[in-house]
From TrEMBL, chain A:
<dbReference type="GO" id="GO:0006465">
    <property type="term" value="P:signal peptide processing"/>
</dbReference>
<comment type="similarity">
    <text>Belongs to the SPCS3 family.</text>
</comment>
<dbReference type="GO" id="GO:0005787">
    <property type="term" value="C:signal peptidase complex"/>
</dbReference>
<dbReference type="Pfam" id="PF04573">
    <property type="entry name" value="SPC22"/>
</dbReference>
<keyword id="KW-0472">Membrane</keyword>
<keyword id="KW-1133">Transmembrane helix</keyword>
<keyword id="KW-0735">Signal-anchor</keyword>
<keyword id="KW-0256">Endoplasmic reticulum</keyword>
<dbReference type="GO" id="GO:0045047">
    <property type="term" value="P:protein targeting to ER"/>
</dbReference>
From TrEMBL, chain B:
<comment type="function">
    <text>Component of the signal peptidase complex (SPC) which catalyzes the cleavage of N-terminal signal sequences from nascent proteins as they are translocated into the lumen of the endoplasmic reticulum. Dispensable for SPC enzymatic activity.</text>
</comment>
<keyword id="KW-1133">Transmembrane helix</keyword>
<dbReference type="GO" id="GO:0006465">
    <property type="term" value="P:signal peptide processing"/>
</dbReference>
<keyword id="KW-0256">Endoplasmic reticulum</keyword>
<protein>
    <recommendedName>
        <fullName>Signal peptidase complex subunit 1</fullName>
    </recommendedName>
</protein>
<feature type="transmembrane region" description="Helical">
    <location>
        <begin position="26"/>
        <end position="45"/>
    </location>
</feature>
<comment type="similarity">
    <text>Belongs to the SPCS1 family.</text>
</comment>
<keyword id="KW-0812">Transmembrane</keyword>
<dbReference type="GO" id="GO:0045047">
    <property type="term" value="P:protein targeting to ER"/>
</dbReference>
Length: 179, 102
């Protein structure tokens, strides 16, 4: 003979098992989706300074500064298994000191339901763009790429790079003005 | 005393227990399937979870409390036998001659 408490326990456990099965099927319906999209990036102002990085050593390092435009339509990326997108803008370049440098200068979180069409003009960077050394002055080949991390309700978290990057160069002289 | 009697009164009979469990599983599966299809159509997994939760509440109301419909087929228990001295002796005799299966 089992009691009302046994029945309620069995019911709750069965409900949670069914929920787990539904979550797996939700993951299965979106497992092989393609999360790529195009982004248009453009730089408006580009400066480089040579200032001491007090958080590292006392030496003078190059600090880059760009004001940029960003345009992307990310609405097709959202489905019932996407909770939010974590976007980040990376600057990639090469210096005599280091073969590959990647610096994140801006990021944004877009949750499901929020406006997913990016049309920003004249954005200032969110994070400091320090170089390890003095490799930014006169650097002719710096690439800005937008990437995003898809955060699902259930399943893996793919990292996708947008098609469409922007290449620019830093000026040959340092700026000393405040910006 | 009233609490113990109330607790004992919560028991359904065996047939009622089987029916209650089967009914609760059918309800949950049905609401799960409907919730999944509806959630897929409107592309919101939160709606699927909500519909399943509604199914849980319905199954809880229908199958957890001992409704009268689950107590229709009570087992006919044997009457309590009186425990006299004679009964003990004959029972012990029966235990000694019990042949264990080979």
């Amino acid at each position: 003979m089992h009691s009302a408490f046994t029945r309620s326990h069995a019911l709750a456990a069965y409900t949670v098992s069914v929920l787990a099965g539904l979550t797996f099927v939700c993951f299965a319906t979106t497992a092989f989706r393609d999360y790529s999209a195009n982004a248009t990036i453009d730089t408006v102002t580009v400066l480089v300074r040579n200032v001491p990085d007090y958080s590292a050593s006392r030496e003078k390092n190059d600090m880059g500064f760009m004001i940029f435009d960003l345009k992307a339509d990310l609405r097709p990326l959202f489905n019932w298994n996407v909770k939010q997108l974590f976007l980040y803008l990376t600057a990639e370049y090469q210096t005599p000191n280091n073969k590959l440098n990647q610096v994140v200068i801006w990021d944004k979180i877009i949750q499901r339901g929020e406006n997913a069409v990016l049309d920003h003009k004249n954005i200032r960077p969110k994070y400091y763009f320090w170089d390890d050394g003095n490799g930014l002055k006169g650097n002719k080949n710096v690439t800005l790429t937008l990437s995003w991390n898809v955060i699902p309700n259930a399943g893996h978290l793919p990292n996708v790079v947008a098609t469409g990057s922007h290449r620019f160069s830093f000026p040959d002289e340092y700026t000393t003005s405040k910006m | 005393m009233g609490l113990v009697e109330w607790y004992n009164g919560l028991h359904m009979d065996y047939d009622g227990q089987a029916r209650a469990e089967k009914l609760s599983r059918i309800i949950i599966l049905l609401f799960g399937a409907v919730g999944f299809i509806w959630g897929y159509i409107i592309q919101q997994f939160s709606e699927t979870v909500r519909i399943l939760g509604a199914g849980f509440v319905l199954a809880a109301i229908l199958t957890i409390p001992p409704w009268p419909m689950y107590m229709k087929k009570a087992l006919a228990w044997q009457k309590v036998r009186p425990n006299t001295g004679e009964g003990d002796v004959s029972e012990r005799r029966r235990m000694r001659t019990y042949n264990f299966p080979v």
